[in-house]
Amino acid sequence: MVRAWFMDTSNDDQRLEHHRTPPEFLSLETLFEKTGVEYFKIDANNVSEDQTLKNLATSRGYTYQDEITCSRECLPEYHKKLKMFYEEHLHTDEEIRLVLEGSGYFDVRDKEENWIRIEVVPGDLIIIPAGIYHRFTLDMKNFIKAKRLFIGEPVWTPYNRPADDMDCRKEYLQKLERGVFEKFVTSS
Ligand SMILES: CSCCC(=O)/C(O)=C/O
Ligand SMILES: [Fe+2]
């Protein structure tokens, strides 16, 4: 079960859990309703045969995939890239990540400007909607390997906040307003 919680506001090491006191966890359903972030469990030991992943790729048209490893040894310009990932930003397309090894945290902003921290471990596939402000950090183990999926030619460009005038931002806020994310469906 993936864990998600509201973050505290401390400036301690970004790689710590940053729970509030007392901790405030969210269910997957609440996470989806508040942000549109979707979650699927995949068999990390047999990704190529996983039926949930096959169904997702077909139904959503994922035509591109590659892998990224974030570690001091494997990621070129490690410090610069990690700093970039942790800048609050958005993308014009969904960010789809399946964790193969290691772990980390995706943080997403809700409408009330709270940060929600989503812990990801092997087998966790998350879909971060286009236009939502978010960021990523490694945890204290400093290692994650993830599959990146995309529809068509990949575009990884981050647009740092403020990016409120971008169409994808306006469309995301309209979806939240219209309650598009209110129909939570569990994956098989
Ligand atoms: C674990 S994937 C690295 C983070 C990333 O690709 C991204 O775009 C964060 O927003
Ligand atoms: Fe991103």
From TrEMBL:
Fe(2+) binds at residues 89, 91, 95, 134. GO terms for biological process: L-methionine salvage from methylthioadenosine. Its cofactor is Fe(2+); Ni(2+). It is found in: Cell membrane; Cytoplasm; Nucleus. It catalyses: 1,2-dihydroxy-5-(methylsulfanyl)pent-1-en-3-one + O2 = 4-methylsulfanyl-2-oxobutanoate + formate + 2 H(+); 1,2-dihydroxy-5-(methylsulfanyl)pent-1-en-3-one + O2 = 3-(methylsulfanyl)propanoate + CO + formate + 2 H(+). Transmembrane segments: none annotated. Its EC number is 1.13.11.54, 1.13.11.53. It is a peripheral membrane protein. Its main location: membrane. Ni(2+) binds at residues 89, 91, 95, 134. One of its GO terms (cellular component) is plasma membrane. Belongs to the acireductone dioxygenase (ARD) family. Catalyzes 2 different reactions between oxygen and the acireductone 1,2-dihydroxy-3-keto-5-methylthiopentene (DHK-MTPene) depending upon the metal bound in the active site. Fe-containing acireductone dioxygenase (Fe-ARD) produces formate and 2-keto-4-methylthiobutyrate (KMTB), the alpha-ketoacid precursor of methionine in the methionine recycle pathway. Ni-containing acireductone dioxygenase (Ni-ARD) produces methylthiopropionate, carbon monoxide and formate, and does not lie on the methionine recycle pathway. PANTHER family: ACIREDUCTONE DIOXYGENASE. This is Acireductone dioxygenase. It comes from Parthenolecanium corni.
